[in-house]
């Protein structure tokens, strides 16, 4: 933009002057009249609409399950349905218990607890098959006792458990690895879990945690839940934290940069107003339409701040220049709408159409990202063209005019680097 466009403009012939249509001639004065005489009207309308949109924010849900990025007719989703229905679940949840001592897992009390936890898990509709060392011990004991159903249980003593495991290993079986550590200090109860979304995973892990805390014997000194459902929950917490951090950082950085470049703290703060409107409206719309806050949409707010600030800076910079040239509020608004206002509309609509191309993608995350970015571009534009002019009617000039001392310093610096006036004092 800074290099190629000037070169192209120099090479191209000057365009012919065209008379503006009557609609264009009337639009800028009409808008300027509304925002100068009744600035509270657009403010009230915008605040009413924004309040309605903010009602959707509590409905916003966080989701970190990447399988939801695919459409329902996607081969990935169809394969997951087959795995969920045929093999008991496409996700794996594990509960790891630590006895704190060697051969602690061979204690019948510990094995019975693991068996009870498996039965508890299998009662859940989202859980398919479960497995642990307790299963292996029961099946081996059952086989050693001549397939007598009365012995499909955990042996009464640790010594009997150790003998069962020894005979199993002598027969070529592998005990340690996926079920237990080599010293039998720690063991794992694994469960196949169907895809039920973040809320379902969270409820399952919470219920399992309550059961373990209530039922575990004192011989288990530590335990934890792991697996893909637990990973999704931890990732969702990171998403929320990163969203808040990125928003705070981007708002602060943008406000500071605009304040420095425009030599006015008030100008920096005013430039954030359209961004607040766009970001708040974006979250509200996401809540109402059921769009999730996930790894794709979490970037939208920060991108909105980075891209949408252009509209506010364009409008505010032009308006301030007109005011510095001696125009009153209404006249400055008229000129700003006529020049920068038109450019802002073209810029925003062009970006919105560019993001809408993502609607043709078969990847669901890109679909959502595309139309949400297009929506926020339009809302950023409306914030700059509707909210900012109304707010400027209530703000004194000195709030957004350059600081006199810094303005004089910048003028001296510009003269010092001016090749025509470089030697003048």
CATH architecture of the largest domain: Up-down Bundle
Q: Termini separation (Å)?
A: 35 Å
Tell me the β content. 5-15%
Low-confidence stretches: none
Helix-strand string: HHHEHEHEHHEHEHHEHHHHH
CATH superfamily of the largest domain: Multidrug efflux transporter AcrB transmembrane domain
* Major beta sheet, strand line-up: 3-4-2-5
Global structural class: alpha+beta
Summed up:
The protein is α+β, with helices and mostly antiparallel strands.
Describe the structure.
There is one protein chain. With 425 residues, this protein is α+β, with helices and mostly antiparallel strands. The protein has two domains: 27-59 and 263-407, Up-down Bundle (Multidrug efflux transporter AcrB transmembrane fold); 72-233, no CATH class. The protein is 63% helix and 7% strand. It has helices at residues 4-11, 22-37, 40-54, 75-86, 108-122, 133-144, 158-170, 197-215, 228-262, 265-289, 300-324, 329-356, 364-392, 397-400, 404-416, and strands at 61-62, 91-98, 127-131, 186-193, 222-227, 292-293. The strands form two sheets. Strands 3-4-2-5 form a four-stranded antiparallel sheet. Helix 9 (228-262) runs parallel beside helix 11, helix 10 packs antiparallel against helix 11 (300-324) and helix 10 crosses helix 13 (364-392). The mean pLDDT is 85.
């Amino acid at each position: 933009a800074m290099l190629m466009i000037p070169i192209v403009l120099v090479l191209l012939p000057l365009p012919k002057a065209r008379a503006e249509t009557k609609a264009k001639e009337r639009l800028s004065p009409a808008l300027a009249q509304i925002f100068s005489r009744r600035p509270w009207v657009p403010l009230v309308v915008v605040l009413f609409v924004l309040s309605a949109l903010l009602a959707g924010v509590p409905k916003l849900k966080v989701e970190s399950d990447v399988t939801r990025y695919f459409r329902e007719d996607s081969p990935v989703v169809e394969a997951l349905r087959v795995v969920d229905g045929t093999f008991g679940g496409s996700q794996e949840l594990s509960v790891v218990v630590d006895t704190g001592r060697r051969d602690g897992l061979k204690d019948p009390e510990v094995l019975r607890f693991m068996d009870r936890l498996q039965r508890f898990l299998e009662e859940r509709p989202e859980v398919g098959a479960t497995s642990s060392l307790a299963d292996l011990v029961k099946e081996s004991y059952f086989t050693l006792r001549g397939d007598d159903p009365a012995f499909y249980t955990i042996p009464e003593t640790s010594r009997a458990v150790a003998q069962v495991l020894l005979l199993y290993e002598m027969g070529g079986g592998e005990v340690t690895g996926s079920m237990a550590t080599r010293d039998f200090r720690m063991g794992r109860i694994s469960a196949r879990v169907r895809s039920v979304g973040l809320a379902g995973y969270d409820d399952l892990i919470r219920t399992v945690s309550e059961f373990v805390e209530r039922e575990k014997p004192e011989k288990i000194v530590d335990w934890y839940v792991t697996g893909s459902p637990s990973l999704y929950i931890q990732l969702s917490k990171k998403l929320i934290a990163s969203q808040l951090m990125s928003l705070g950082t981007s708002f602060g950085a943008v406000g500071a940069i605009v304040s420095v470049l425009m030599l006015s703290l008030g100008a920096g703060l005013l430039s954030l107003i359209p961004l607040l409107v766009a970001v708040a409206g974006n979250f509200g719309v996401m809540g109402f339409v059921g769009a999730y806050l996930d790894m794709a949409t979490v970037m939208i707010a920060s991108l909105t701040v980075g891209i949408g600030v252009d509209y506010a800076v364009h409008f505010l910079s032009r308006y301030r220049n007109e005011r510095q040239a001696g125009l009153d509020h209404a006249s400055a608004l008229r000129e700003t709408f006529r020049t920068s206002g038109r450019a802002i509309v073209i810029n925003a609509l062009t970006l919105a159409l560019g993001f809408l191309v993502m609607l043709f993608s078969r990847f669901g995350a890109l679909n959502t990202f595309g139309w949400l970015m297009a929506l926020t571009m339009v809302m950023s534009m409306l914030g700059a063209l509707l909210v900012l002019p109304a707010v400027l009617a209530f703000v004194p000039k000195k709030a957004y005019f350059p600081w006199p001392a810094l303005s004089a310093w910048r003028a001296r610096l510009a003269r010092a680097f001016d090749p025509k006036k470089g030697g003048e004092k």
